[in-house]
Amino acid sequence: MRTKLLIVLAVAGIVAGIVNAHFSASSKPPLPPAFPPAENPYAKGIYAEGIIESFQPNGENINIFPEVPGTVTNILVDEGAPVSKGTPLLVIDNSIQKATVAQQKVASEAALALLRELKAQPRKEVLAVSKAQVVAAAASLKTARDDLAIVQKAFELDPQSVSKQQLTDAINAEKVAEGNLGIAQKNYELTKAGAWIYDIENQQHLYESLVKTYESGKALLAKYIIRAPVDGTILSINAAKGSFVSTTGIYETYSQVYAPVIVMGGAEPTYQVRCFVDEILVPRLPTLSQMNTRMYLRGTDISIPLEFVRVAPYVIPKVELSNQRTERVDVRDLAVLFRFEPPKGLHVYPGILVDVYLQVQNGEQPNSKPSE
Q1: 10 Å Cβ neighbour count for 95?
Q2: Domain presence at residue 10
Q3: Half-sphere CA count of 336, side-chain side, radius 13 A
Q4: Quick one: DSSP state of residue 28?
Q5: CB 335 within 8 A of CB 16
Q6: What is the DSSP letter of 302?
């Protein structure tokens, strides 16, 4: 009985193994794609991945970085809003710089006041004092001379009536009074002449330097308000009130990289597509301005003809358009830009990835007529 049970179990195990191997070996049908891929409309056409941008006569989107670091205190615009050149977009805390500018202003005003004081010399009150000192010195000299004359006359009448010391003291007193008068007169002339020209020039330069410092501080203070550099549309605001921003941008929470604080698009209501053609396919391109090109919106059967705008002739390292990370393999792309106008009722936005087919031979028409 036990032997029969073992045989039955062995046979069951073999059958289970065969069944499991059969199902494991059988391939499952692949899942259908999320959306049907765009078909090449040309008999000979090359594929390029593209990204929609707002139309710019040159460059890409307008990335705005603050010129000063600080905490965002106010955001004055909304995403998608049209703005004109000079419109305030974002305010950064300027309390420290504001106090610094106030201090620089006071310093320049103090220097100007001293410069005006030097230019206003002589002050009439000071000149009057100096003149009075001349009068007093002249009176002292007259007194000393009168005293000397009395002593000398007494000495001439009776040499025994005046000592030699008295005569010497009177002579010296007259010389001292004469010297004091000369000093008072020179001091009066110096006071009357006003401030020395070199002192005025030195103060003038100091004042101008402080004014430049104040103007520089005011210019820096103005940088705490980020303004629109050109007419355009706000595409993205990556900062929030209370966020810290620096000259390298703002640190994004999810991507964990630094990004522009504000991204702006052009003012025109048209769009452009930046296509990245692999360097291997570049020699196959015909005359760019004459070739037919179509763009396909992913997830739809909509295609839009493109109008050639320009080519960026500098071949760049291939990038992943989703997050702009440079690939490890050194493969390069040529950027070709096309303009288009979306059909009525179709909403497209900058940043959408699209499929683009470029016709290789001139004059060739698409095999099928894609829907517009």
Answers
A1: 11
A2: no
A3: 25
A4: P
A5: no
A6: B
Q: Which two tokens stand for residue 312?
A: 């960026």
For 70-124, the pLDDT digits (tens) are 999 999 999 989 999 999 999 999 999 999 999 999 999 999 999 999 999 998 8
- What is the number of domains present in the chain? 3
- Position 5, amino acid: L
Q: Do residues 285 and 231 both lie within one domain?
A: no
Q: For residue 259, what is the domain's CATH number?
A: 2.40.50.100
Q: Which residues have C-beta within 8 Å of that of residue 293, sequence separation ≥ 6?
A: 275, 305, 306, 308, 338, 356, 357, 358, 359
Between CA 306 and CA 294 the distance in angstroms is 6
Residue 17: inside a domain: no
- Beta-strand (E) ranges in 228-318? 232-237, 244-245, 250-251, 258-259, 262-265, 271-278, 293-297, 303-305, 307-317
In a domain, 369, yes or no: no
User: Which residue, 89, 46, 59, is CA-closest to 227?
Assistant: 89
Q: How many CB atoms lie within 10 A of CB 360?
A: 17
* Max CA distance (Å), the chain: 179
User: What does the pLDDT read at residue 253?
Assistant: 83
CATH of the domain at 348: 2.40.30.170
Is the Cα torsion angle 187, 192, 194, 198 positive or negative in sign? negative
What is the CB neighbour count within 10 angstroms for residue 359? 23
Other residues' Cβ atoms within 10 Å of the Cβ of residue 160: 7
Q: Could you give the CA distance from residue 182 to residue 165 in angstroms, rounded to a whole number?
A: 26
- Whether residue 309 is found in the same domain as residue 349: yes
In a domain, 367, yes or no: no
* CA dihedral of 230, 234, 239, 241, whole degrees rounded to 10: 90
Rounded-to-integer distance, Cα 90 and Cα 262, Å? 9
Question: Could you give phi then psi for residue 79, rounded to 5 degrees?
Answer: -65, 135
**pTM for the whole thing?**
0.70
Q: Determine the structural domain holding residue 155 and report its residue range.
A: 102-216
**pLDDT at res. 344:** 85
